[in-house]
């Protein structure tokens, strides 16, 4: 396109452009400061105090030291990583698989699409009710079926046995969050020019090759960003775990956010709780910086 | 009584909200009030600009919302206060709300909580004395510090077990019989004989503590200001080990109860996965009568199992009621409110909004007409019999210092469900009974630092 | 486009490939359908039967053989469900509109205007998600309290928008990168203003993108528990999630009522999913514009 036109138009509309920019970013900056920046600064501030909501006394970094040297910190960290990675990867795979299927215009695809979006729109509270009901050892239908079909002799308390608790929480999370990747990837898939596939087919490329050379590059940006934000969210995910297992049994599902909650509201040690939140923040930020460096997820592939 | 309040109230309104706080401090005449100094300033600013002072009331009794609203409107029509209720769900959400309100300098005036929590607030310098509403009224006085009362009890919730009377021919009562009978039931019938709860839940914590009490384990000793953990002393260690051994054996005839709250154990009874479970009061009946009406008559209440030869002399009963906070903007109004509440004509409706589960805080109330005429209670005379017969044994976990003195370590241990966790260490974590006793003793001592 | 090189490398004949693909598709679809629908069915089955019917005989009976509105009646008579529900609808709708509008505007700005620190600013926004939201409840409460904004729809709308906006913006930024600028340039040539072009040319093309953004912000707002818990402390103002969590632990409320309120909560998401069908179906086609 002609550079002359763009230069001229950008000059002529300098004011409108500015206005648009302001209109776009000013309100955002305001919310952002109010709901994120100030509270985070406030919380980080609290992490430097002993007993910050009552008789606060400055404690320097002692809260951080206390958290990092706690005996069980590595276990909680491991649980968090395990939970975040497994749920992120599985929900991405589920979402991607299904987006590819639905994009193929198969019969019933539209029904499937409706169904897939649905779980994501349900509040966690509802999701937990449903899965608790399914997995409960007493009233749970999953156990009832397993026992009826002779798979197991006694009902398994999925949410409260060491071997199963993490898996049960992960299944519940994937059920809810699989659709997140699904609807974002579906929108991207539909944005791919069908002529590209047509041309590839004419040139004799296999389905796999077309997938590798057309689909994947187009989805790259979306997949990278899904991995990043989903990973962050799952690492910080509190409600789904707390409502289903409260971190038990024996800390088998105690992730760092659960620990933060325990510190804050069971042990009423707000200094330590905010310090742990701070540690998690710096951990994630560190990972994210590397991630941005390596992948540049906001870059689109140009073709 | 109410009239007297309203005259005094008129004077106070005239003097303005700020003075009300000051006067409250005087009439209360308590030393601990001075600790609330900085926060009182906030209260003055708050109430200074309002013509009608607002009492902020935090409650987890959504069940009784209608009655509470009625009591409040009666109170508001007789006093120049408005009452703002924030309902919280049971469990930790009250703590969460409290933390938020305190951090914002907007603390509540009245909190509905257990006596153990009231004592924690008192220790932290947050509670205002409410002696006038307690002393001389016949109400129990579980949180009495230096002669001042800090807790107005409104209800008692005793633990209670339920067993299937069609499967257990008679109540096994003793540890020994429970064990052999539970084994028989588990082996012969298609059902678990018992439920053993473990983990960080109230249900697990209360039942494990109660099992210790049944075996005469003195977990603590000493006066309020010098509580010692004695569970692993020479005298108690063996008894505590026996308790865990018994729990371990019973767990073999029970479904995996890790992380179970009240509702889970009740579900096990309801779905016929277990033939007996220890719970609180008639809670199981209230749930089961809606879901499995056919099962209700097959369930009988029981005391906790007890070792052969021991008596039921210490029976866990929750005590819940009102605590007035000293740093809110309407401390005096809050005092009047809690007093009004306890004396209200609707008080019994409040208690009986969950009959068989909540009982009046006094013997007199227990024998009152309101209780006798309650239909649900009439349908379960055996529950009332248990409650009447054991009334004098009812005690809270708070009253475990010497001679029933309030015990802050026990209150904190309950707050973190240390005993529930100990059962999980035993049953899920594979510790031996001996190691479990050591574990629990160490945890308890950790709370004292 | 590095595509031609593999053209001859294919061993499996294309017809067989297509058949395998077809079978795999149907299998995946069927599996997912079961995984997604069974839990929903269970919820419905428990909600529309009386608890005594569901639990009779010690098993859970999920074949719906008796219908009753008992559970819903309990909700309406004994709880504030309707009020909670209305509150949820109000804040969710406002926050969805606001967040999507912000995202479209900001996303457009990020792709069409060059300014320094653009990428850094956008990345910084995502860092907000890294702070564990549980402990933010206290600072947020303090802020809303000092602004006198507790118990207002306005405050909750703002708070919810702030949670969804960082990601919706990112989403739209990504999306606008796939919309060729040539479309707009040809409109400018014809004399349309930037704002006009945004409205007439860019928005229609960006539809699948902003629908994704709207779905996301709806999900955030409808799902929210934390913010509502912080901002609202008055029973009249609770949203359905907070309200339900309050009455569901009452001793008089059981699984029947729990599933009934869950079913009610599911209705708006369901309507949205059905309604969006039409939009998502239209797809997005830039092919003819090259």
Description:
- The complex is a heterotrimer of chains A (303), B (449) and C (290).
- By secondary structure, chain A is mainly alpha-helical.
- Chain A has one domain (66-295): Orthogonal Bundle (MetI-like fold).
- Chain A is 73% helix and 1% strand.
- Chain A has 13 helices and two strands, in the order H-H-E-E-H-H-H-H-H-H-H-H-H-H-H.
- Chain A has helices at 3-12, 14-46, 62-68, 73-102, 109-121, 124-135, 141-148, 165-190, 194-202, 207-235, 239-245, 256-266, 270-295; strands at 49-50, 57-58.
- Chain A has a two-stranded antiparallel sheet with strand order 1-2.
- The radius of gyration of chain A is 24 Å and the shape is globular.
- Chain B is of the alpha/beta class and 449 residues long.
- Chain B has two domains: 2-155 and 318-372, D-Maltodextrin-Binding Protein, domain 2 (3-Layer(aba) Sandwich), CATH 3.40.190.10; 157-316 and 386-448, Periplasmic binding protein-like II (D-Maltodextrin-Binding Protein, domain 2, 3-Layer(aba) Sandwich), CATH 3.40.190.
- Chain B contains 21 helices and 15 strands.
- Chain B has helices at 2-15, 17-28, 37-48, 65-78, 93-103, 115-123, 131-134, 175-188, 202-214, 234-251, 262-270, 283-291, 331-343, 347-351, 363-366, 369-372, 375-379, 381-390, 408-415, 418-427, 433-448, and strands at residues 53-59, 81-87, 110-114, 127-128, 144-145, 148-149, 152-164, 196-198, 220-221, 228-229, 256-258, 276-280, 299-302, 315-325, 394-395.
- Chain B starts with a helix and ends with a helix.
- With 290 residues, chain C is mainly α.
- Chain C folds into two domains: 15-68; 79-283, MetI-like fold (Orthogonal Bundle).
- Chain C has 13 helices and no strands.
- Chain C is globular.
- Chains in contact: A-B, A-C, B-C.
- Chains A and C meet through helix 1, helix 2, helix 4, helix 5 and helix 6 of A and helix 1, helix 4, helix 5, helix 6 and helix 7 of C.
